[in-house]
Here is the input.
Amino acid sequence: MELTTAWFIIIAFLWTSYFFLEGFDFGVGMLLPVLGRDDVERRVVINTIGPVWDGNEVWFIVAGAATFAAFPEWYATLFSGFYLPLLAILLALIIRGVAFEYRGKRDDARWRSRWDKAIFWGSLVPAFMWGVAFANMVRGVPLDADHEFVGSLGDLLSPYALLGGLTTVTLFILHGAVFLALKTSGGIRARARRIAGLAAVAAVAAGGGFLLITQLQYGRPVTWLTAAGAAAGLLAAAAANRRGREGWAFVGTGAAIVLAVATLFLSLFPDVLPSTLATGGLTTENAASSGYTLKIMTWVAAVFTPIVMIYQGWTYWVFRKRIGTSHIPVKKPVA
Amino acid sequence: MDTVDIARWQFGITTVYHFLFVPLTIGLSALVAVLQTAWLRTGRTAYLRATKFWGKLFLINFAMGIVTGIVQEFQFGMNWSDYSRFVGDIFGAPLAIEGLLAFFVESTFLGLWIFGWDRLPKRLHLGCIWLVHIGTLLSAYFILAANSWMQHPVGYRIDHGSGRAVLTDFWAVLTNSTQLVAFPHTMTAAFATGGMFMAGVSAWHLARRRNVEVFRPSLKLALAVTAIASIGVAITGDLQGKVMTEQQPMKMAAAEALYETERPASFSIFTVGTLNGEEEVFGLKVPRVLSFLATGTLDGEVKGINDVQAAEQERYGAGDYRPMTPVIYWNFRVMVGAGLAMALVSLAGLWTLRRGRLPSSPWVYRIGVLSLTLPFIGNSAGWIFTEMGRQPWSVFGVLKTSSSVSPGVSASSMLISVASLTALYGVLLVIETGLMLKYAKAGPPSEDEVLPPPSDGPGSDSDSERSLAFAY
Here is the structure.
């Protein structure tokens, strides 16, 4: 296989892993005000992702850096072109990351409720913006002959892109609700299952519409399969959730995310960022680094990605137990 | 202001801010790991209490280092897209490898360390914090290799078709002579930062004779690390000066505000000049020292700014190749001054602690606490010096900063970006400092708090109902 194609697949894999993993912790963040009725319950909700959210976020950092290394033109055009949406993502992730660590550091209800809002918005904004960004990547944006973005912010907020944002938000809420049902016990677990039932309806409506439009406009024969598989994953997740099979429900939402992202990347290939003008479209060929850089990067990725997956998988094993309100230690006064 | 200026301000603000947290993360992760190792080997509860206390301060700091690091990676694409296009072939690789090799290790094993106190066997749990520390070192290596390439590009050629830099030798990039002096210099500075921080907080408690059994060993360890590390900073800084003189003569000339070439050259301790630095009003100089710093001999020639400017014009074409001399000159002095002060304070501190003593004079402790600011001042000045000293280049001798900025991004978008990031960073700095002070003053947990409650043995029914050792 050509190295440029291999790197397109590697980058698709990194983004897919990112949405699979951080998808549920964004969902948990968005559900925090809904499912956590008091402070102890909110702590249960946060602690389901406590040990792993940071490791999940690194998949985004690596996806971004790998794009820089393997497809510098794509990285440069994408990040300068989608400037303000990306800025919103960065600001949200900063606030969110600090919120997890600082929320419990003062015994003060107002302090905690502010950080809870930070976790909610810090999860909602990126969840929405990623959908917008990926929809625009598939749809294409106006690029001039130098691959520079020449559109405006309005071009990025088309109805199709907004539907993409709605898709990621509902999908991640569902994924998060199923994860919470899997990881908690007691009242939170029961409520998470109920919410998952509602979220499944919303995710099927938004995601189904989005994938159908994507298929009709930009799809190819093979993406009928992945898009249908994503829909089947959602329905299976909803069915498993109703029966209380929480592990299978999580497999279903996970499969839906993986196949939905696969649909987008398969629709895109061999473009990486098409242009809506006659000029400036970026492909795996004209956006790529030199063969030498790609070769070194391939070795590094081939050796280290499996290692990362092994030790991250082990983390989930170490923290596999369900958490309930009885597990939350009583706060001691600090000074 | 045009977009180049705005993008430069954003880079300066976000980078200096990020680097307030990074060296402390590197230094403190090692010190926490050492204390936890000491606890495991001796079984002394005081070391466990110390581990938990410094660990908490480490985590408050670490959170800020992580979240501000994301901005660093993505502003290359956002504000400097032409730079990213030009160097992506070379510069992107260390960044991606940093993520894959270092960030995953740091974030995953930190999560395991924070939440794994009662879940992992003790040795495995200790291994987690050591892996976090190794992750920080790897991360620093790849990032500094990328920066060293900007200071002294190697292992590449310019592709005639696209006009872009193409990687030809990755090993050369990783073993760049600039990198081989920059990495030890920055790492010793990071260890000194962790040490000075620990020493300052310990001094505050010891002045009040609180938790002496925790803070006296902490202080001794911290001062020893700071003393060794700051001597290392001086030695590696001296080596770096010689490499820099060879590779970037303009930076050395500007560091000394040396306008005319001298042989032998004297070292300027202090100078007052006109605002643009072109004329000296008053100066205090030590003969021959600059010759030694720059070349290693007492009568070496050091090129002045005017000669370097003429030589670079001949080489690179007409243009102004002088950086902002007063900024470079003063930041160089602040950096060196802070480093020397740290060496003196730590050595003097060790002297006051000899043979199990604790000094009684409050001034000893006041100096210790005040010295806590020294590494942060020195680190910031060091980066301002090395980055602004490279101007007008973003990649020395190859790509100008003015040709690096994103051509398609409007000044208003960039202003929104720099304003929102600066405002958020400002608010977070207040919050972070508040938390640091609160937890630093609160002191370590008591003996009862760190020892686990009696268990009915592993696997018993009560085990699954027991509350977590740590929860957010």
